[in-house]
Amino acid sequence: MNRTLLWIAISLGGLVVLAYVGLSIMAGGPKDAIEMLRFAWPHMHRGKFRVGDIAPDGQLVALDGATRFHIRERSNGRPLVLVFGSFT
Amino acid sequence: MQIYEDYKDHADFLTIYIREAHPLDEWRMKSNAKDKDDVCYVQPKTLAQRVAIANDFTQRFKFSVPFGIDEMNNAANDAYAAWPERLYILDESGRVSYKGGNGPFQYEPKEVRAWLAQRYGEVKHPEPAPEKKS
Q1: Whole-model pTM?
Q2: Is 3.40.30.10 the CATH classification of the domain at B2-120?
């Protein structure tokens, strides 16, 4: 029994190490893997809607910092390409 | 953004600036400081700070694509699951016609170009020559 538990613990530990190594490679380093879990993971999700669904609208702020407009206002009867991103 | 220059006569474009991906006070990446443009900011805590960074970005890169900034409640980011970067195309009726994957690994501008090319044909204007440094 104890031997079985030991092997289960070793296997789980090995999986955790492998996952950490894989995440480190993906994120760019061991420290980045931790930062990724801490800061990026909470913001990562696939989204609730699918292709063909009505797109959610949302209010944005213009570069002047005061003017507000809605995403859909920027579609002038043509397809609208949305490019989400940040500076860093 | 070359796709914008190529297809702006056919489709509308909107860049949406969302919360920073790699600010100094969160998941900082060495590449930001090493970058020749030295892109180093803390995560904006106020709308004024977010607007200031957005203006810095558009001015520094002479960014001509129409621009909007997400509110501090990150409503657009959350609605579109956009962080850290993502591409969508909405059709004329407001339906999602293309839903790109989350960046950076699934961020594929070539898929947007392919969607536009399929509808409007291949368009490729010559890229502007880089500015000479004085």
Answers
A1: 0.81
A2: yes
